[in-house]
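Collaborator request log, item 7. Partner lab (contact: R.S.) asked for a structural prediction of Tyr recombinase domain-containing protein to inform their binding assays.
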Amino acid sequence: MIVDVSSLSEEQKIKIVETVLQKGISYKELGIDRVTWWRYKNKKRKIPDEVVQKAAEYLTPDELVQLTYSIDISKIGINEAIGVIVKATKDPEFREFFLSLLQRNLGEFIKAASYSYPITQEDLQMFKKLIENKAKNTFEDYWRYINRIAKDNNYVISPDKIKDYILEQFDESPHRARQMATVLKLFIKEIVRSKDPILAQILYHSFSIPRPKTKYKPAVLSLDLLKKVFSEIQELGAKTYFLIAAETGLRTGELFYLSVNQVDLQHRIIKLFKENETKRAYIAFLHRETAKWIEENYLPYRENYIRRHWGGVKAIGQDIEKWKMKFFPMNEDKMRAEIKAAMQRGGKVFRLYDLRAFWASYMIKQGVSPMIVNILQGRAAPNQFRILQEHYLPFSEEELREIYEKYAPKLLT
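Returned to partner:
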């Protein structure tokens, strides 16, 4: 039995039979006649499960999913999920159906999880031993870069994260991006490959080492397209991330690893603290509508997410208090997969990094000075921003906010 028709509502049962009849299957093939079907359809009589089951056999897995999607998921818990896995291991017919549904409906999420590699301290120490025979300056550079890469990516690398990360580094310093890409290639080849050869191959070929004349051409995006993608995103963590990224143009890593004390919704400011000697944004702003939307929609969802998942996070040995302080405590790869799936539904897939380029071009087209765009996107280091503000810029922080609110893109209007 492919579908447990007894768990379906009367409306769902009628839809299944009606869909099959519309495909040209005769009443006789379903064991009914026209008059009987009229009685079922108009709820004069309950439709028997055996009729629905026979009809379901004429439908594809995708069609069944569409027709039964409104099934009451509140009654489905961990035990039911485990039961599905056990049944799939023992029943070949059910397994084929189950895997088909997973691939068709959760393919991006499965790939996101399977294509991620967690960098451990053991990995880093193995790499350190590997490069010990290099010249002193080279050794120090490689060791510094691999630790920086691991920290910036929260000690998890995946194809999409790597590509965005290298692009962001290239945006700030082509030389540093080439060095980091070289070090990462070596790490994947020598360390990851020994533990997971297939994943290592995927990671290794997911990015290239930038060359001096490398010029990344971001996808051409429009505000209407971004609004459409935003409307397609279902999970509120991914939806909020996409909203902030599109409206601020900040780096993907900066947003994924925000802490709650960096986001001031009352004053509509995001504070990007200086973490090292590379360039970091001083502050970024939020639109009034965006801050209100986050407070009313995302924050309650975030609190509920933490209540539901803190036990699992603790079980795998993570620092619970540090995790609770993350503005986005959700799994980054799953958030990326959610956004990518929404892009596919919206009609165009692009890199999250492209939102940064879109924001800059949008602001400049609105007549905003490139210098202000660079400041708001973090291309000016914090100390450099303060010098500019104190000695050269004819505007205050409040005036910067006014420029942002007047010209920055809005997804909620």
